Amino acid sequence: MRRAYSVETVRAAEAALMQRLPEGALMQRAAAGLAAACGDLLRRKGRVYGSRVLLLVGSGDNGGDALYAGARLARRGAGVRALLLAPDRAHPGGLAALLAAGGQVVDGPDGLGVLDLVVDGITGIGGRGGLREDATELVHTVTRDRTPVISVDLPSGVEADTGEVHGEAVRADATVTFGTYKPGLLIDPAAEHAGALRLVDIGLGPELPEPPDLEALQYADVAALLPVPGAESDKYRRGVVGVVAGSERYPGAAVLAVAGALRGGAGAVRYVGPGADAVIARFPEALVHAGPPSKAGRVQAWVVGPGLGDGRGAEAAVADVLAADVPVLVDADGLRLLDAGTVRTRTAPTVLTPHAGEAAALLGTAREEVESGRLTAVRELAARYRATVLLKGSTTLIAEARDTPVRVNPTGTPWLATAGSGDVLSGLTGSLLAAGLAPRDAASVGAYLHGLAARHGSDGAPVSAQDVADGIPAAWRDVRAG
């Protein structure tokens, strides 16, 4: 599992570790890992010896990491030059090491020629706001030939704690981070600037507290959560999920939500709504009912909202489902029709799955604010509605009302930006709720499988929501195989 911590926590852990180490040892560990990553990239382009490397060096320890790493590269025969953005505040030990190794300091970008690598050591995890205008112009100048960029700890100009980007920021091909991940490396829009991530172990682990601020599940974590039927399983042990979805205008939403539930391993699906004929035509194993949901029969979780529309009875159906004493997932039109007070006072779990526009409506804010501050938005939604919230988007986030780490899904893909994909996710996650997974786990596993399924469905080609649903079994097999 990838774990991320706030800047304050990282600083405290570093301070505790440095008390037990010789002076400068922590920076040398970081510089060694950074130099190794730079060397790997340069070898893929050709070789380290004779390569041309430019260090963009800010003040403080981040610039020191870059300078010490540059010294190591210079001793391996690379031509390393440093451009100091704050010459009077450059790290003295790092600068001395670079010069002693044969590196050079340059006054500006003119006359640098063709570069093989740019190392971004302008600002570190303590930086706030975007790059200053002079730094922005410098970055644009030295990367205009698409020279590869490696950022030190975090791309300069992004917010480490939130993933927000206020102004201009470096777009790195790779980021080498030290000790632990920072939230901004895993959350868009900042994550888009980070490129490939490489974590360097500097011995910080024992100093980091539990729980982390953010975590991202990986194959082994998801495999451990997957509900696998046993020899004595029946449809109720596997989980029966109820789906209230679709309308005369959107009958396909019903089909896709049911598809997600069945592909997600539900023992049975009870469908309630006007799309019964379309559902039965596609999935004869589905159990259909005219409604209301409370009369449809026994279920262990409900999914309500996809394609429900504004037709007569839609609001009543949402209220009927929320009155049930089982986990409920609310999506799409259901989010617009729900009563906030009812959600807050439910004793059974509630999962809300908005996209940015729906989240903005629930919060009474602008969509742009949600998209630029995704971590803040998902935490606020979870607290305000006392629910588990899965905020869909370029990076899907899952938060709970209580004090648990926010989870970020690492398998998202732009192929999921297709009509009906969210309906599949709702059914899939609902099936996991019905199987007995805790809401946070069901949402996390659902998002993870959903992203993998899109990759299987697309295989590099355009993907439809039905392709995503059909890709779920292959995603499930991939996870179990590791």
UniProtKB/TrEMBL annotation:
Gene3D superfamilies: 3.40.1190.20, YjeF N-terminal domain. Its EC number is 4.2.1.136, 5.1.99.6. CDD domains: YXKO-related (cd01171). Its cofactor is K(+); Mg(2+). (6S)-NADPHX binds at residues 61-65, 124-130, 153, 253, 307, 355, 423. Binds 1 potassium ion per subunit. InterPro entries: CARKD, Nnr, Ribokinase-like, YjeF_N_dom, YjeF_N_dom_sf. Keywords: ATP-binding, Isomerase, Lyase, Metal-binding, Multifunctional enzyme, NAD, NADP, Nucleotide-binding, Potassium. K(+) binds at residues 62, 120, 156. The gene is nnrD. Residues 10-210 form the YjeF N-terminal domain. AMP binds at residues 392-396, 422. Homotetramer. The keyword DNA damage does not apply. This is Bifunctional NAD(P)H-hydrate repair enzyme. Residues 218-479 form the YjeF C-terminal domain. The keyword Lyase applies. Bifunctional enzyme that catalyzes the epimerization of the S- and R-forms of NAD(P)HX and the dehydration of the S-form of NAD(P)HX at the expense of ADP, which is converted to AMP. This allows the repair of both epimers of NAD(P)HX, a damaged form of NAD(P)H that is a result of enzymatic or heat-dependent hydration. Catalyzes the dehydration of the S-form of NAD(P)HX at the expense of ADP, which is converted to AMP. Together with NAD(P)HX epimerase, which catalyzes the epimerization of the S- and R-forms, the enzyme allows the repair of both epimers of NAD(P)HX, a damaged form of NAD(P)H that is a result of enzymatic or heat-dependent hydration. In the C-terminal section; belongs to the NnrD/CARKD family.
